[in-house]
Amino acid sequence: MIDKKANRLRRARATRARIRHLNVIRxxxxxTNLHIYAxxxxxxxxxxxxxxxxxxxxxxxxxxxxxxxxGNVNAAKIIGTRIAExxxxxxxxxxxxxxxxxxxxxxxxALAQAAREAGLKF
Length: 122
Description:
Elements lengths: L3 H19 L3 E6 L4 E6 L6 E6 L3 H10 L6 H17 L6 E3 L8 H11 L5
Parallel strand pairs: 1-4
Antiparallel strand pairs: 1-2, 2-3
């Protein structure tokens, strides 16, 4: 019997194979119950160009005023905006969105929408 995590990782492998074939920079997302993480990874997959997560002290301070938690849609919107700003500072304008097998819903969709609104193209 295949469990939820194995199914998610299978979906993630399929998505990453397509992105690898395109040879473009990717924005990858990882979520847990308490936090959400985003990374911009180079086209060859060897270097992380920039990252953002709800564990960063600046984000934690920002969340204390809004919701106090890192595992909700408000936190995902903050991380989406933050990763887009960091990517633009690193000279990245366009990326492929790697949702890591998670469904495009809730926190993952909120992060993507916030990154798009902040000027990242995908």
